[in-house]
Every structure is written in structure tokens, then in C-alpha cells.
Amino acid sequence: GQLRIIIFLGGENHPTSSPALGEARGGVSRLLLTKYYPILKARFALRATASQFQAWSSAKGRTASSDAKTVEYKPIRSVLVANRGEIAIRVFRACTELGIRSVAIYSEQDKLQMHRQKADESYIVGKGLPPVEAYLSIPEIIRVAKENDVDAVHPGYGLLSERADFAQAILDAGLRFIGPSPFVVQQMGDKVAARKAAIDAKVPIVPGTDGPVTTKEEALEFCKQHGLPVIFKAAYGGGGRGMRVVKEMSEVASSFERASSEALGAFGNGSMFIERFIERPRHIEVQLLGDKAGNVVHLYERDCSVQRRHQKVVEIAPAPGLDP
């Protein structure tokens, strides 16, 4: 079958990315190199050096320091988690193991939620706002962080975790953002920009549009040129919303309009991205972890092919049945 590899920065539920696996970066590195190195050697040769990332960043007009002397390292003494529920509790647990003070935020409606009880400190945000809007209030989150001597902010997943403006606002406030840089968040959150980044990195891709598509006429033209089946995707969103698979030319116009309308409602932008649809693909992800000094490790692969409505249901790690 077809093999699709999604490479991104960040942390989701993965057996080898659990906070409990190492009390520090060195501990994680030792675990990766000792316990799993034979699997790594047999499956992938996915290594990236600081110099390679420096070269790629320089070509893009950015800077990526690979010289440890130019990087300012300060211990993180306190972390605010800009999220709620299970993900916040997991981060708090890791903070406790590392001796880091944990700070929770909560909406008025969530004052009895477990994540508030599990943190060392908790503060209300977004008084008078609905729960979701409260957790999306960037000025409120920064206010809490600044007033309570917080060193770093962890976005969790969902909510603000894929908002480049949030990552930038945290940095502008003089805080540390535990996650990808604003540039990476922006690049990977935009399917068109992500596709271009893949092309620049010489990653094989399937045929797709070079830019956002805003009219059904453009969609019809692409389908006539590249054939069916195709998939319409929200250009500036994800999570399975704003997506339609089209297998008949008679369905192109109506499917495009429905997908675009759904994307507009969910993400505030109805622009679409179109690419050839791969029948029964294997969805393989390789997760990367890097720091600002250019040190990069990968956390092995997982198979995310079991999906419902374009959303992952089961993730299997290591991925079975891959060629060495």
C-alpha cells in the first residue's frame, strides 16, 4: 500500500514521549539510544544534525543557532499550562517529577475540574466568558503568567496549541513557549505552506493545488486535469473538519461548497486545498523532538491508519509491517 509520512514537532500521546520516561533531556536521550536503538537502526535512518538544520534555516532567511555558546540556558522553575483536563494533568505530573512549580488556569465553569486541583497553583481566566473563549483569551493567560512569576507556558493540545499568534505573544511577553517556534506553527498549520516546505525538503508528495482554492470552478479544473478521486481539505484548519472525498465529477461542485462552508464556520476561512485521494493508505507518523540549540531526535514511528471521519482512532507503535 501507499506510505504517507507526517513529520512534525511537538508532543502527543506516544509511548516514548511520556514525561515519565526521563527526568531530563539526557535521560530521554539515554533511553532512546540504549533501549530502542536496535529498532531505530532496523527501521529508519532518520537523523538530523544541527548543521543540517542550520543550512535549511539559513536558506529560508532565518537563523537557527547550532553553537551552544550563543544559546542562553536558564532552568525552568515554573510552568503554566494553557489548557485543561487530561493533558494539563499529565503536564503537571511531569512538572512534579522534575521539581517544577505548576500553574493551572480555569474558567468560571471549570472551578471544580480536576486539573485545577492537580496543579500547585490555579487562577481563573476570562471571567464572564464561555469556557472555550476563556481558555482562548491570550491577554488573560499572559496576565496570569506575568503576575505569578511564571517562566514558561505549555499549550497542551487543541485550544491555542496551533495558534502562531499565541506562541509569538508568549515570546513577546518575555516568557518561554514550550513548543515549536511561531514560524513552525504557522508553516505547519497552513496546508499550502506545509506542502511547499515538504517540496523544499525533497519529501515525495501527491499531486495537489499550489495555493488555496476559493471557487468551485477552480476545483473542477483541478479534477479535470488530475483525475479522481480527490480530497478537499480546509487550507487553514484540521481535525477532520472541512474535508470531503470526491469520486464522481458530478459531486465536485456540491462537495466543494459543503466543505468550504464547513471550513468557514470552523476556522473563519473557507479556502480549500485539493489533492489526489489515496485509496486505503497507511498513515505513518514519525515524531521529532528538537531544542533551540539544533539538537534533534526522533521518537520513532507509529501507525495511525485506523481513522473515523478523517480523525485518528487508534495509534500503534511501533508501526507493524514496515520494510527495514
Question: Any overview of this molecule?
Answer:
With 324 residues, the protein is α/β, with parallel strands linked by helices. Among the domains are: 78-187, Rossmann fold, CATH 3.40.50; 203-276, ATP-grasp fold, A domain (Dna Ligase, domain 1, 2-Layer Sandwich), CATH 3.30.1490.20; 282-314, no CATH class. Helix content is 35%, strand content 21%. It contains 12 helices and 12 strands. It has helices spanning 25-34, 37-43, 50-59, 85-98, 114-118, 131-135, 138-147, 164-172, 182-189, 191-200, 216-226, 252-267; strands spanning 3-9, 78-81, 101-106, 121-124, 152-154, 176-177, 230-234, 244-246, 272-276, 282-290, 296-308, 311-316. A 5-stranded parallel sheet has the order 4-3-2-5-6. Strands 1-10-11-12 form a 4-stranded mixed sheet, with no helix packed on it. It has a 3-stranded antiparallel sheet with strand order 8-7-9, with helices on one face. Strand 5, helix 8 (164-172) and strand 6 form a beta-alpha-beta unit. Helix 8 (164-172) runs antiparallel to helix 9 (182-189), helix 9 crosses helix 10 (191-200) and helix 11 packs across helix 12 (252-267). The protein is globular. The model is unreliable at 1-54 and 60-71 (pLDDT under 50). One of its GO terms (cellular component) is cytoplasm.
